Amino acid sequence: MEDKKKPKRHTPKEAKLKAANFCAYQERSQKEVRNKLYDLGLYPDEVEDVLTDLIMDNFVNEERFAKAYIGGKFRVKKWGRKKILMGLAPHKISPYCIKKGLEEIDEEDYIQTLEELIQKKANSIKESESFKKRNKVATHAIYKGFESDLVWEAVKRLVE
């Protein structure tokens, strides 16, 4: 049977350097950094000490993470608020930071993005019966995380 090597246990100083590089690459949540530190072999009290240092040195900032995450998912992936919130849940971000992040989404841009998504989907569906077509378009937009009341309002306006 193969001998499995245990991963090398890093010193808190080495782990802090690796975690700082991990954070410098892209915004990270405290949960992601905490998991990384555990992966580097630190003990729980060491993890919390290093994480505190990283927060103090501004490598980890939950509000900045929430703004980057929410802005990116909305602008790049065209996700609605509901799907964004579901994606944020595992990161255990505070309600305050989530609120600040959601403020990054301009309401006009949100509606415009929803309308563009609806138009694009409607144009791609080859369905002659308008009820079925509207239903398929709305289902797609709701799946993308947009609120159903906004979706149906836009679908009624935009899809024949």
Can you tell me about this structure?
The longest helix has 18 residues, at 107-124. The termini are far apart. The protein has helices at 12-25, 30-39, 44-56, 62-75, 81-88, 95-102, 107-124, 130-143, 148-158. The chain has 160 residues and is mostly helical. The model has no long low-confidence stretch (mean pLDDT 93). The protein is elongated and about 65 Å long. The chain is built from 9 helices and no strands.
Query: Outline, from the CA principal axes?
Result: elongated
Average pLDDT level = 93
Q: Strand tally, please?
A: 0
Give the strand content. Answer: under 5%
Structural class of the secondary elements?
mainly alpha
- Which stretches are low in confidence, meaning pLDDT under 50 for 5 or more residues running? none
**Secondary-structure element pattern, one letter each:** HHHHHHHHH
Helix content: 55-70%
What is the CA-CA span between the terminal residues? Answer: 66 Å
Radius of gyration, taken over Cα atoms and rounded to an integer in Å = 21 Å
**Count of DSSP H/I helices:** 9
Largest sheet: none
In quaternary terms, these chains amount to single chain
Brief rundown of the structure:
The chain has helices at residues 12-25, 30-39, 44-56, 62-75, 81-88, 95-102, 107-124, 130-143, 148-158. The chain is mainly α and 160 residues long.
List keywords for this structure.
9 helices; single chain; elongated
Q: In terms of topology, how is this protein built?
A:
Layout (H helix, E strand, L loop, with lengths): L11 H14 L4 H10 L4 H13 L5 H14 L5 H8 L6 H8 L4 H18 L5 H14 L4 H11 L2
